[in-house]
TrEMBL record:
Domain of life: Eukaryota
InterPro entries (alphabetical): Knr4/Smi1-like_sf, TPGS2
Protein name: TPGS2 isoform 7
Record region (Disordered): 98-119
Lineage, broadest ranks: Eukaryota, Metazoa, Chordata, Craniata, Vertebrata
Length: 119
């Protein structure tokens, strides 16, 4: 599975991403000086990935968490902010995934996800 980007200027094309970002996509797109708003969604986890993670970590995820990862496995949203006529800053927001990319054999929680989940 490949990561999929929402087309710039169209907001989140998937309702669950709109909810995850709390509508920030539309706010950014309508803000003066903000350009190139894109969101790249990671492909959903598969059941066997979740089972492997549970076995490796000797725990059972609650059903709602499993359902969440079966729906989305994280995203990366970027946007640029035009500071003056000649410069722009690239900003971003991530929802980290506890899994490596599906092409990898080993499944481990990422360090970022571990920090994120411990908050």
């Amino acid at each position: 599975m490949e990561e999929e980007a929402s087309p710039p200027g169209l907001g989140c094309s998937k309702p669950h991403l709109e909810k995850l970002t709390l509508g920030i996509t539309r706010i950014l797109e309508s803000s003066p000086g903000v350009t190139e708003v894109t969101i790249i969604e990671k492909p959903p986890a598969e059941r066997h990935m979740i089972s492997s993670w549970e076995q490796k970590n000797n725990c059972v995820m609650p059903e709602d968490v499993k359902n969440f990862y079966l729906m989305t496995n994280g995203f990366h949203m970027t946007w640029s902010v035009k500071l003056d006529v000649f410069s722009a800053n690239k900003e971003n927001m991530r929802l980290p995934s506890p899994y490596f990319h599906p092409n990898h054999r080993r499944l481990e929680p990422s360090k970022k996800a571990a920090k994120f989940s411990s908050l």
